[in-house]
Amino acid sequence: MLCAAPHPNAVFFAFRCLPPLGGCFQPHGVFWLSYAKTRGFLAQSWRFSPSLYAVFLVYSLYIVAFRCAASAPGVSMPAIPPAVRALVAAAPAFGFSGSRAPIPPASLAALRALARVVPSSAPVAIGDASGIDTAARALFPAYVPFDAAARVPSILAARSSACVAWVAARAGLWCSFPARPAPAGLLPSSSPSRAFAGLGSGSWASLALAVGVGVPCLVFLPATLVAPAPFQLVLLEGGWFSHQPAAVQSLLF
Predict the structure, then answer these.
(1) Residues 6+ apart with CB under 8 A from 165
(2) HEC profile for 115-157?
(3) Strands 217-220 and 240-243
(4) Which of 95, 110, 119, 210 has CB 3.0 to 4.6 Å from 125, enough for a Cys bridge?
(5) What is the rounded distance in angstroms from the CA atom of residue 224 to the CA atom of residue 120?
(6) CA–CA separation, 72 vs 4, rounded Å?
C-alpha cells in the first residue's frame, strides 16, 4: 500500500520562512538547519525510509508550532528594563538563586528573559536545588556548579554560602528569584550562620548573605510579594529590584 506524504518542499519552505534561531529557542538545544541542508536531509530521508521521513516531518512541524507559540503576544518573554540591562552589562560574573518548585510563571519568564542578556563570556554560578536552580542550569550550560554533598540543612547552607562567596570574590551580580515572603526576623548579615539561621527560606537567606557581604543584587519579585524593608531593595521596573552596596551607590550618585 502506498501512503501519500507532503513533498519535502512543504517542510523546508517552513524552515526557510522562519527567522534565525533566537535566544528564547537556544536553551532547548535545537539545531537550526539551513535551507540547503534541510532540503538535502529530507530528500535523503525519503529515499532511505518513508518512516524516517515521517518522523522528521512531525518534528519539523513541532518546531514550527513551537516558534509560532513563542512569538505569540500572550506568551512572549517580558522585556528587560534598561536599568536591569545596565546592571547586567557591568557585571563580570553572576550567581543565580531562587525558589524551589513550583516556580511562579512570572519568575520563570523573568529568568529566561534575563538569561538572554547575560554575556556568554561571563561565568555563572548556580546551586543544585530544584526550581530556579534547575531552570538556570538549563539556560547556562557552562555554569559553575555548587552542589551539596547531602540534603542536610547545614550542608545546604554551606553550599549556598560558598556560591555567594564565589560571586563576591569576582565582584559579580547576585540574581535572586524568591517566590514567597521573606521570613520574619531575617536580616542581611555578613555572617553565614546569621543569614542561614534556619528560618525556612534558602533563597532569602542567600540574598541576606549577599547583601550583608556587599554583593550587588538583582531581585525579581512576583506581584504578590512585597520587598522587605531591611534588605533596602530599590524598585527598578516590572517587578525587578536592586540592591547596591553603599560604596557603589556613592559612585553612582
Answers:
(1) 213
(2) HCCCCCCCCEEECCCCCHHHHHHHHCCCCEECCCCCCCHHHHH
(3) antiparallel
(4) 95
(5) 32
(6) 32
Domain that holds residue 150: 82-252
Rg (CA), the chain: 22
Question: Structural domain tally of the chain?
Answer: 2
**Facing residues of 95 across strands?**
125, 174
Helix (H, G, I), strand (E, B) or coil at 75: coil
Domain boundary (70, 91, 114) is at: 70
Distance CA 11, CA 16 (A): 9
Q: What angle do CA 199, 202, 203 make, to 5 degrees?
A: 120
Closest CA to 70 of 24, 113, 26, 28: 24
Work out whether strand 240-243 and strand 234-237 pair parallel, antiparallel, or are unpaired. antiparallel
Residues 39 and 145 in one domain: no
Alpha-carbon 92 to chain mean position: 17
The pLDDT assigned to 44 comes to: 64
What is this structure's pTM?
0.69
